[in-house]
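Q: I'm writing up a methods section and want to include an example of the input and output format. Could you take the sequence below and give the corresponding predicted structure tokens, formatted cleanly so I can copy it straight into the document?
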Amino acid sequence: MGKNIKPVFLAAGGLAAAGTAACFIGALTLFNRVIPRQREVMVDLSEMADAEKWEEYIKIIHAEKEKLLKRPSEHVMIKSRDGLTLHGDFFFSDFPTNRTAILFHGYTSCGMNDCSAMAEYFMEQGYNALIVDHRSHGKSEGEYIGFGILDRFDCLKWIDYVRQRLGEGGDIVLYGVSMGAATVLMASGSDDMPKNVKAIISDCAFTSPYDVFKHILKRDYHLPPHPIMDINERMCRRKAGYGFRDYSTLDAVKKAPCPILFIHGKEDSFVPTYMTVENYESCTGEKEMLLVDNAGHAASLYENKELYHNTVTKFLNTYLT
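A: Here is the clean output for your methods example:
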């Protein structure tokens, strides 16, 4: 019996080493696919809604973008707390106003793509619109995507910019979609959130990077989060300076000082709808929720524009006097 022990342990050790190597390679692949700046859009639109719907949505997005670009605007830049130059475009309302909406886009996109339609809406409602590019997106600097963890601090910098530009008395609304929604929710929990921020609109936010990556691993690869996510998180902390569980929207909304409107499509398989429900349930302040039938990820506005606009208008009219 003793003669067989050594080969068994050697075989077990070899399998363990192979398994460890496979997990490391998987974690490295995941990291390289999602955390560094993406040179092209990597999101599969089929994960967000069916292809035929997105063909129509993209037509709407392009039309709204062309319309927006005809409006008076000013390109603006600020510095992040870690020295990155962040870019945005400030669009002026048709008449003088002390209200401004700051709009944050989704993962691997840019402000002008994701936020043009809502910028038009806000200006029609009497707001200026500041459309920003997240760090490591669009024109903004950065090599690593922040997934809301880092971007929440950038959000506060953009709020400061608006306050300095328009004065302390100006009202600010934060609007975000997908990663941008997670960003504005995470920012809401900051002790430094100014009183100028009167309302937040979150469209299809995830609760944390860890939660959404765990969902994708299970959905697409039928894998548990351990140990791939543990290895990946250590890589991210070492290279990008943050961990996937450093903060969450669930923690933030318990401290949010202003009303929040939570929006999500009922057919979202990319960021599950239950994440917005959890955010809504965790929020301790004034809140409302809209779940849109037949809408996939980031598609609620385009699936039912009338319902979306009417809900946002009623929300803003309720909480901004």
